[in-house]
Write a sequence for this structure.
């Protein structure tokens, strides 16, 4: 029997976090071949690698966090959040490895981040996604996220493919 656990990341998890983030990027590349500008704009190799290295600062406590899903002690997923403003946080890079999909790890990560963010004083959580990530969008909607207006100024070329959601915490 497998045991799913959600826990905050620690410094020693940096290699697993990087592996998961690159897996997330690979999924985006796979799902968006019709959107080459998307990868080039938001996920270019060099800038994405630098951002991964900076994740501990971007999602630092006490106003953000990185959480990991483990199954039988193997790291299989991640989710992160950070402040948009004093009351709004954005959930980012929710990803579960292909082998762990269907285990409830994605739902557990999102639910855990929502609880943590609320405890940190946030009253609203936002996210963006792309239309081809249909499974993720369906999960967010099942968990109560609703479509909302963009919370940043999206690239007009990409805007038709972007989906924005929020939920009250």
């Amino acid at each position: 029997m497998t045991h799913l656990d959600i826990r905050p990341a620690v410094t020693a998890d940096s290699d697993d976090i990087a592996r998961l983030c690159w897996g997330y990027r690979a999924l985006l590349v796979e799902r968006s071949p019709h959107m080459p500008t998307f990868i080039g704009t938001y996920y270019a190799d060099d800038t994405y690698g630098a951002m991964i290295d900076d994740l501990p600062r971007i999602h630092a406590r006490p106003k953000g966090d990185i959480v990991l899903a483990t199954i039988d002690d193997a790291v299989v997923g991640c989710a992160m959040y950070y402040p948009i403003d004093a009351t709004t946080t954005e959930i980012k890079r929710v990803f579960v490895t292909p082998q762990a999909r269907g285990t409830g790890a994605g739902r557990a990560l999102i639910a855990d981040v929502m609880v943590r963010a609320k405890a940190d004083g946030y009253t609203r959580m936002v996210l963006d996604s792309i239309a081809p990530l249909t499974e993720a969008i369906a999960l967010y909607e099942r968990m109560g996220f609703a479509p909302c207006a963009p919370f940043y100024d999206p690239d007009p070329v990409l805007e038709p493919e972007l989906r924005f959601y929020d939920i009250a915490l």
Remarks:
- The helical segments are 14-31, 36-42, 45-58, 105-119, 134-142.
- DSSP finds five helices and seven strands in the chain.
- The chain has a mean pLDDT of 95.
